[in-house]
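Before relying on records like the one below, remember that each one covers exactly one chain. Contacts with other chains, cofactors or solvent are not represented anywhere in the record.
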Amino acid sequence: MIGSGLILLDRFFYKMIIISIYTSFFLIQILIYLSYMFLLNKELKNTKEKNIDLPVSIIISAKNEAENLKNFLPLVLNQKHNNFEVIVVNDNSTDETEKILSMFFQNKLLKIINLKANEGKKNALTFAINESKNDFLVFIDADCFPASEDWLASICGNLSEEKQIILGFGNYQKTSGFLNNLILYDTYIIGLQYFTASILGFPYMCAGRNLAYSKKQWENVNGFEKYKNILSGDDDLFLKQAGNKNNTTISLNPQSFTYSVPKIKFRDFIKQKNRHTSTARYYNFSGIFFSTFDIVSRSVFFILLIILICCLNKFSIFAFILLLIRCIILFLITKKLRKNFQLELNFFKYFALDFFYPIFYLIIMISKIFMLNNDKW
């Protein structure tokens, strides 16, 4: 009798430990998003862009991007900024990229470089940087387009004597379907992470499709030389070397965003994510912390939720209530941020993406093991 009582007491003790940990991760998740809200909303409120007409070189590296250049290059050339050039590097393309670029040949703003050797994106960007006539460089990808005619002016408006590296937001076009919502949600979450880290003085990541820095910062770290043998990382790995709390800032103005064409197949999106995350192993401790803490704490929360539901039936209602409260709080406190980052989701879509997100990253981890290396330029 006493033995049975001790067993029941022991089981109750372990149940309470699981519930306590579950509640702790509930609070951790709330604190994470409260931090995002406080720091980024404060940045939005305090940021005042200057009207700077400094000379700028926009750099685009293109490989087999004929259709995208045809559609998006005019939008880049049509910026209201008064003093800029656009350099497009045709990196040994085998499609009609060279032919499309020749259609813009008479545009005095445009400089075209045709490379015949396939030596990777970093080499292509190096050619463009060396050919640029201006000291301030702005990067956008060939499959991207600026949010507005004020994109360049908005990015440049964040430049100061101290802040010589500007991290912009690279968004995706809004279409329809679950995959598109997942892409937008993932881009938004990653943006919250690296923008917050930069505000706190730990820049570790950026979007190479919307990035600006001075040529001096690039030369100070000897360009891409240190990581020249790594196919990706012309953005993150450069920032790792050159960025710090004194010289790096962010641009949260929606006018300064760029937009990319999103993938329409889940497999293609997984391949893209594998490329984007391929440089994560080179992050320092702060980069690893900021890029993983949210997804790890979220994953633990949902794992404990499943345990509570499957193994501790009498606590299932408590687990569901806490889950619902968490999602409602996150949905409400991030409303302004979602609006700024152009993420339009109702509560039910937000709830579904919130739950699926850890599963999505589990799929990415598995794909890294079983899929072929997709780091190709």
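The first helix runs from residue 2 to 46.
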